[in-house]
Specification:
about 525 residues; alpha/beta; TIM Barrel; M1 Pyruvate Kinase, Domain 3; Pyruvate Kinase, Chain: A, domain 1; eight-stranded parallel barrel; magnesium ion binding; Pyrv_kinase-like_dom_sf
Length: about 525
């Protein structure tokens, strides 16, 4: 693990604090995943979120039904049309999540040092003496002295809406607990988390499968966030399930690491998954606080070297209710970028927070500033060393394209691709300039009808740091030597000029296939 060398430029260029942040088509290279919910589901708010820098919309099925999420998604589609911004869709499963069921939605006050019983009898009404839960195996999994955490949706353990419980005794199927801090639980559902304890629940529940095979299939989801991934087998089973659902065989699976069990099997999970989400809220409860930073750095490093997107959660909790993040949170966002995170995932901050648009904008600005001092030179050397020799043909082309772009100070790298793989490999080397991924659609058939691929590949680039996709006209092949390639290059250059990243006399590095060969070329633009 080489995370001890801080990936920051030495010496750091002192940037005038009065210098305004550059606003452009690309607010930052680091991507922002926004969770859409009550405070962020109107067309107007979603449009503003897209303009502020959100490139992936997350739909969390821990709450809300398919109809509710479908309405939100229809609004997202309308916002994409009006704002002309691409956005991918992520479905987040419930997974092996234990929940307290509060059917009457009455507020429940718990006092420190009092006792409360957790029971699997969901017929009982939730009160300050008894909390019904959705899992009948808790009594078999815990023992006296174990810690249990209850909170609403997302929790930090500091606010007065979540509570620490200590198991006093197990009585049959019930678990008797002592309340460690006074708190008021409000709402219909609270998440229940048992620290460092194996919970025998399936990673992909029947409810998850139903949602994926109906809502997921109907909306051709780009990403599946697999909650509570604990083993590589969880990812394999999810992939097997998706492969039976037509278009969803192309859906990328992001393993959500939420507990010590997932961290223990991290290397095998990373091999199977398309990307990783580090769910720091739950990890922060499962791990001692002093260990969190190390696992974050280690996991991000491994994702970077594997060329798989790494997503970090829980960065600006305080912006759920406040217009500005705390100093610690602002530093945390910057460190996530310097540690190698591809994307920042906003949960409660955009779902039920008061300032969803401002949160996205603030996080984007912090990411942009951190990217300016990211030590690309050191990172590039580490990545090349990790890949080793001999390099594969594609790896060699990708690293050469990035090296050439840096040497000639190119303003952008343009990559023609049909699967998206070449563009992702280029992005893996973290070039300092944006990578424009021109996705060339391919004609495919299922014996009944012809259709073009490409839309999935383009949207799936939207979670990779520094990768900005555009979908080409399908009449232009990616592997042609004819003038058609020149016309598609012109479209890409015009796109870059319109977005402000390409200016007259700039140099541009182009990566494309010509016949069986891959070619990297440098062009200098005229006026």
């Amino acid at each position: 693990m080489h995370s001890s060398n801080l990936l920051i430029e030495e010496p750091i260029r002192m940037i005038s604090i009065l210098e305004p942040a550059k606003t452009s088509f690309f607010p930052a290279m680091t991507r922002i995943v926004g969770t859409l919910g009550p405070k962020s589901r109107s067309v107007d708010v979603i449009s503003s979120c897209l303009k502020a820098g959100m490139s992936v919309a997350r739909f969390d099925f821990s709450w809300g039904d398919s109809e509710y999420h479908q309405e939100t998604l229809e609004n997202l589609k309308a916002a994409i049309k009006t704002s002309k911004k691409l956005c991918a869709v992520m479905l987040d499963t419930v997974g092996a999540e234990m929940q307290v069921v509060n059917k009457n939605e009455t507020s429940i006050s718990l006092q420190a040092d009092s006792q409360v019983i957790l029971t699997p009898d969901q017929g009982q009404e939730a009160s300050s003496e008894i909390l019904p839960i959705n899992f009948d195996g808790l009594a078999k999994s815990v023992k006296a002295g174990d810690t249990i955490f209850v909170g609403q949706y997302l929790f930090t353990g500091s606010e007065t809406t979540s509570v620490w419980l200590e198991v006093a005794e197990v009585a049959g199927q019930d678990v008797v607990c002592t309340v460690k801090n006074s708190a008021t639980l409000a709402g219909a559902l609270f998440t229940l988390h048992a620290s460092q304890i194996h919970i025998d629940l399936p990673t992909l529940t029947e409810k998850d499968k139903e949602v994926i095979s109906t809502w997921g299939v109907k909306n051709k989801i780009d990403f599946l966030s697999l909650s509570y991934t604990r083993h590589a087998e969880d990812v394999r089973q999810a992939r097997e399930f998706l492969s039976t659902l037509g278009d969803l065989s192309q859906t990328q699976i992001f393993a959500k690491i939420e507990n010590v069990e997932g961290l223990t099997h991290f290397d095998e999970i990373l091999q199977e998954a398309d990307g990783i989400i580090l769910s720091r809220g739950n990890l922060g409860i499962d791990l001692p606080p002093e260990k969190v930073f190390f696992f974050q750095k280690s996991a991000l490093y491994k994702c970077n070297m594997a060329g798989k997107p790494a997503v970090l959660t829980r960065v600006v909790d305080s912006m759920t209710d406040n217009l500005r993040p705390t100093r610690a949170e602002a530093t945390d966002v910057a460190n996530a970028v310097l540690d190698g995170s591809d994307a920042i995932l906003l949960g409660a901050e955009t779902l039920r927070g008061l300032y969803p648009v401002e949160t996205i904008s603030t996080v984007g600005k912090i990411c942009s500033e951190a990217e300016k001092v990211f030590n690309q030179d050191l990172y590039f050397k580490k990545t090349v060393k990790f890949v080793g020799e001999p390099m594969t043909h594609l790896e060699s082309i990708a690293s050469s394209a990035v090296r050439a772009a840096i040497k000639v100070k190119a303003s952008v790298i343009i990559c023609f691709t049909s699967s998206g793989r070449a563009a992702r490999l280029i992005a893996k080397y973290r070039p300092t300039m944006p990578v424009l991924s021109v996705v060339i659609p391919r004609l495919k058939t299922n014996q009944l009808k012809w259709s073009f691929s490409g839309a999935f590949e383009a949207r799936q680039s939207l979670i990779v740091r520094g990768l900005f996709p555009m979908l080409a006209d399908p009449r232009h092949p990616a592997e042609s030597t004819s003038a058609s390639n020149e016309s598609i290059l012109k479209v890409a250059l015009d796109h870059g000029k319109a977005s402000g990243v390409i200016k007259p006399h700039d140099r541009v590095v182009i990566c494309q296939k010509v016949g069986d060969a891959s070619v990297v070329k440098i062009i200098e633009l005229e006026d």
